[in-house]
Specification:
single chain, 124 residues, alpha+beta, six-stranded mixed β-sheet, 4 helices
């Protein structure tokens, strides 16, 4: 496997970990995976800070064991930056998503995440 492919595969595994209840309910696990400069633009359009995610996500309702993802693909944008694109389906809500991951101190952490709701209807 080429180094670019290895980086993308590692980041995909980390993103999928973020979609699990085990990680989403653990402030410590989230702290390890969220970059200090992390922000998120949620599917609702709301901007979330790292502090808000760390305080709110583990304290929220438990959620599913795993949020389903589809068509996850990654691309190395720079030596230490990977962009992932994928779709999720959670409680009947489909969203297109993008995550930017940055390697710092030898480990990958998500720097930015955005979700955009897909309107109901035929797949597009």
């Amino acid at each position: 496997m080429a180094p670019d492919d290895e980086a993308v595969a590692e980041v995909i595994a980390l993103e999928r970990a973020l979609l699990t209840r085990e990680v989403r309910s653990s402030a410590a696990a989230l702290d390890e995976l969220l970059d200090p400069e992390f922000t998120e633009t949620g599917a609702s359009g709301r901007l979330w800070t790292r502090a808000e995610i760390l305080a709110g996500l583990p304290a929220g309702p438990p959620g599913p064991d795993r949020i389903a993802d589809h068509a996850m693909a990654g691309r190395l944008l720079a030596a230490d930056v990977v962009m992932l694109t994928f779709e999720t389906d959670h409680e009947g809500r489909r969203a297109r998503r993008v995550s930017l991951w940055r390697r710092s101190g030898g480990r990958w952490r998500v720097l930015y995440h955005q979700g955009t709701l897909v309107p109901p209807g035929p797949a597009s």
